[in-house]
Amino acid sequence: MGLTRVVLGVLALVTLCVPLGSLVVDAVMEKIDGGGLINLGNRERTWTPYMSLSHLLSEIESITSYFSFRTFDPEGALFYGDTDNGEDWFVLFLRDGVPEMQIGKGDVLVSVAGGHKLNDGLWHKLELHSEGKFVVLKVDDHRELAMGLHSHEPDTSKEGYIRLALGGILVSEKKLLLPLNPLLDGCVKGGRWLNLSTLWDSTPRKTAMSCFPNIKAGSFFAGTGLAIFNTSDLPGVDPKEERIIITVNTSSTTLNGTILSLRSLQSHSTVLSVAKDTNSGMMIFKVNTETTPINEKFDEDLISFNVIIHKTSVAFETKNVSSESHLRSGDYSSILAAWNEGMLLAFGGVPEDGLDSGSDYMEGCLDTIFIQGQKIDLDQASFKDASVSSHSCPV
């Protein structure tokens, strides 16, 4: 079980590309043919790969593969391969935008990371090939990383099967050297991988979205789902200021529906929401049962606002050129107390009893979200509907 065997499993992975129009559905799985374009995001399950296959090692002849990859996502699993049913494995992923490779063989783990950040929203050509006992990663035709592992065990590289996966891993995440958020909002295309033409197995997705022709950084909501955080997992109430500040910036010209909502876990009621009405173009600010239409004219391509919760007031504050604040006074100390204990803060709709259900879903792109000044990543949400793209929006 030498390194060659692991390398073969690795290199067979590298060029998975799938056209949405080539899906063939059976009773349980979809059969997918490689060679086109595929969106790695929009999946319900965290670690489960988008697609996988198993193939005889003895039929592997080529050990060079390549594909093009595009993302704004700083972290996530790109592809994975193993032999011996997961005893020997390899994974390539991004961490802080930088490519990282890991090999696991028995109790030995090898990890290497480095090179240029790849989460710039541009297409990059990635190539993997073997150089003796090393796996080499090239990015845009430049040698980026090399990782080697020497074993004194007998080389059985042509025995058994390889398992391949894209967008996840097939072993326990506990085997990784460092923790990782595996969800990856990105696309691959133009793949050429080894000599295999085997169809891949894929779990049908609730919302199968194509790769946008042109993208910008942001979080895209398709109008069919939302992302929900438990506020106890978010930055807490500032003890000096005794206030909560939620900041939303968006340049989406077609934004409509509920942008954010805050719900009590005790009373199951929505205590606050901000929505944009499609017909009037006005923002609707609601606190408990009292509604305040915001008559201010927003720029055509810019909506930026703060929601500020104090003990004695809640404010909707616009951040446009003519900044304006809409204040509602009252006793809101219970919201501050409940925030640290846990409430449901949703973006893109109003959650109902089940986290996977809601209403008044938003359609459009949120460029950035900040809570207490800290940027929020939707991949960290307690629940995120598969229709929500965490890091990319169509231009």
Automatic annotation (TrEMBL):
<keyword id="KW-0446">Lipid-binding</keyword>
<keyword id="KW-0325">Glycoprotein</keyword>
<dbReference type="GO" id="GO:0005576">
    <property type="term" value="C:extracellular region"/>
</dbReference>
<comment type="function">
    <text>Functions as an androgen transport protein, but may also be involved in receptor mediated processes. Each dimer binds one molecule of steroid. Specific for 5-alpha-dihydrotestosterone, testosterone, and 17-beta-estradiol. Regulates the plasma metabolic clearance rate of steroid hormones by controlling their plasma concentration.</text>
</comment>
<dbReference type="Pfam" id="PF00054">
    <property type="entry name" value="Laminin_G_1"/>
</dbReference>
<feature type="signal peptide">
    <location>
        <begin position="1"/>
        <end position="17"/>
    </location>
</feature>
<dbReference type="GO" id="GO:0005496">
    <property type="term" value="F:steroid binding"/>
</dbReference>
<keyword id="KW-0732">Signal</keyword>
<protein>
    <recommendedName>
        <fullName>Sex hormone-binding globulin</fullName>
    </recommendedName>
</protein>
<keyword id="KW-0754">Steroid-binding</keyword>
<feature type="domain" description="Laminin G">
    <location>
        <begin position="37"/>
        <end position="211"/>
    </location>
</feature>
<dbReference type="InterPro" id="IPR013320">
    <property type="entry name" value="ConA-like_dom_sf"/>
</dbReference>
<dbReference type="InterPro" id="IPR001791">
    <property type="entry name" value="Laminin_G"/>
</dbReference>
<dbReference type="InterPro" id="IPR051145">
    <property type="entry name" value="GAS-SHBG-PROS"/>
</dbReference>
<comment type="subunit">
    <text>Homodimer.</text>
</comment>
<keyword id="KW-1015">Disulfide bond</keyword>
<keyword id="KW-0964">Secreted</keyword>
